[in-house]
Amino acid sequence: MGNLEKEARKKRRLGAIQSGVLAAVGIAGILLVAAAAPKALEVLRYLPKNKYRFAHQSKSALSRLCALGYIRFKETRGRRYAEITDTGHKVLSVELFKMQAEKKRRWDKRWRVVVFDIPEKHRRTRDSLRSSMRELGFYRLQDSVWVYPHDCEEVVMLIKTEMRVGAALLYMIVEKLENDSKLREHFGIS
Question: All domains of the chain, ordered by start, with CATH?
């Protein structure tokens, strides 16, 4: 195994730990950052065999999440707690959407269509929106028309709010879409 491959594996593992810590903070509301933290986070998929190493990794993940603005630390009665921020909630929602998208779900025979019309003067927002759609797994029908087979209203509304696009973005649920065989093939739907 080459150094690049080892480094990539390490980054994936740390990413999973970081995601797990964020989820733990988000679900619990607040997380005690002390000796109990490693025990609370044992549900993580990439839990190292060495508990001391894991304690170090979880504290490092908390530090990185704080630096990103996803959590903030509070001190109460001499104990230090981590609390999820609004930005952290948004990131967690997107991460949960991605995890849900990976699961095989039964298709309800409805397409979710996102259509937007953002003027040229807001090109950065438009490009960022396209990038988000691509990252979340939507299929591009046209530059401003994206399709997804499962319910995604929450994450679309989150993106709509975050990017402040308002009425420029529309979310539709479509029962019939002409020539959808390419879409069905792309999403693995029969």
Answer: 3-88 (1.10.10.1420), 104-187 (3.30.70.240)
Buried b (16+ CB within 10 A) or exposed e, 33-55: beeebbeebeebeebeeeeeebb
Q: What is the pLDDT of residues 88-113, one digit of tens each?
A: 777 777 776 776 666 667 889 999 99
Q: What is the pLDDT of residues 31-59, one digit of tens each?
A: 343 333 443 444 444 445 566 665 666 67
Cα of 181 vs its chain's centroid, Å: 28
Tell me how far CA of residue 33 lies from CA of 15, 40, 156, 164, 165, in angstroms.
Answer: 19, 10, 33, 35, 38
Beta strands in the chain (DSSP E): 30-32, 71-76, 79-84, 111-116, 139-142, 145-148, 169-174
The answer to whether the predicted template modeling score (pTM) of the entire model surpasses 0.85 is no
The answer to whether 129 and 118 have CB atoms below 8 angstroms apart is yes
